[in-house]
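Bug #2210: token dump truncated for Helix-turn-helix domain-containing protein?
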Amino acid sequence: MEDRELINAPERIRALSHPLRLRLLDLLGEHAELTATQCADLTGESVASCSFHLRMLEKYGFIERAAPRGREKPWRPVTRRGYATGIDPDVPGSVQATVELARMTFQQRSQRVWAAMERLGQEPQEWLEATRLMNSSIWATAEEAAALGDEIMALFEKFEARDDPSQRPPGSRRVRVMATIHSEPPED
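Reproduced locally. Full output below:
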């Protein structure tokens, strides 16, 4: 499978730093193709707003037009594997743009976590037991921390074929996983 596209150009990172654009990318990842009208229905935003933000995502190379379906003009992601931001201190604005995108992404994802926690009382026992909040602290070198991140991503790869509905086992649901690997400041 293709690797995630690495983005370190500040203007492309900033193009993602909008809550509706992040949501639209998520939706396109889930549905493969959507029209602006379908995006509006799924987000509660106006068709005009969705159209504008879809065009911005196209301008910066994240999505493209799919084959027309009659009068419908759907959009689709350029890549199914998603994107990874790369901080490049030699690219002016790269660090600041990545920090802003990380803040917005974490805020949006944490809202989903809280919504899931609020629904726990309505979930069947099997999904109660499958729901986890994990927190850990370890001592590692930068190289070990990077390797840990690679190992975690490798675990996710075995589920990627399931974006195709025919590959999903009965009873499966979209499961969200949010993890961070970051260091504390060095101790003096």
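Output looks complete on our side. The helical segments are 10-16, 19-31, 36-43, 47-59, 94-118, 125-130, 142-157. Marking as cannot-reproduce; reopen if the truncation happens again.
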